[in-house]
Amino acid sequence: MKLKKIVTLGLSLVLFTANITPLYSAFADNEVGNETAKEAKKKTKENELDLVMAGDVLLHLRLAYWSENGKGGYDFNPIFKLIKPIIKKADLAIVNQETILGGKELGVSGYPTFNGPYELGDAIANAGFDVVLQSNNHSLDRGKQGIYNCLNFWKKYPKIKTVGINTSEAQKKKLCIYKKNGIKVAILNYTYGTNGIPLPKGMPYAVNYLVKDEVINDIKRAEKEADFTIVCPHWGTEYYRGITDYQKAWSKIFVENGVDLVLGCHPHVIEPIRYVTDKKTGHKMLVYYSLGNFINSTMSDGRVGDRYVGGLAKVKLKRGTDNKVRIAKYGVKATVMHNGGTKYGSRVYPLTQYTEELAKKNVMKAQDYMFSLEFCKNICNEVWDKLWD
Predict the structure, then answer these.
(1) Could you tell me which residues come within 8 angstroms of residue 283 by beta carbon, excluding any fewer than 6 positions away?
(2) pLDDT in tens, 128-138
């Protein structure tokens, strides 16, 4: 009787062990498979970088008025609400902050001499931008103090890099290098001028200008220190959707010195996206001549509806087997500035989410009767053809 029980118990243990072993093996194999997949994904991401760049942020005075919070301050976060997911998703997000952020103490103002409250910078940071461009024709709208106030404000966000204006020669010479996913990207920013406003006395380094020798020197240093070089020039002719001789001349300088990507601003309307090739070396450089306005509320009327059409440059970088980082894919996300004319009634919309009903309620409709959803699409088709979405 006892012997039977022992034999039965032994057989049960053998059967239990036999049954559990395959289950454990399957679980173990699955663990190894998952880990391999994770490692492969991480390895792939280490060799890729998705970047976006938004065009001009122009704080026209009525846009500031519509963003007042009723407590003596401002809330610009609603403007970014619909576009924020795209910005957050990118590995590197750049924006051209055309309005100097000198704070309310220097007087909030719009065209022709801009100055924004710090809350605009807070909203830009909250939207997820990593690099803020500050060199433009409005950089000196509040003089020396505007430069100091603006850069002091950005110290509040140590992870955000600013480029284009400086409080010292050392700061001007220091390259803006952004590192992510094992890729180092150099971002250079220059302007053609500052609306005739001279550099502050004793501050020859305050603003980065398009000065040939200085630019070439910066590019050469960037080529040594980074895997990929981007130049963000403030150039071109305002409200002109074509490419000027000035832009062509500078594009030639950029490509001959090894620049990989150009992301342009200033014209306040969108311009073509083209590859430029150095005839001597065969080096190719992608140029977004103008991304147009990102945020604005121009008071002008007439044929001005295209000033509300902008774009987010979308570029995927990838490291090749030769260890060089190149552009793997590119395009542009079309955007529309919607100003409803009411408190917190301003939004940047992806064009794909915009409607004719919204277009009819946009204050631009009263300024340019031609403005409509179809008008915005036609502008994008005319300038970008099939590159936009």
Answers:
(1) 255, 258, 277
(2) 999 999 999 99
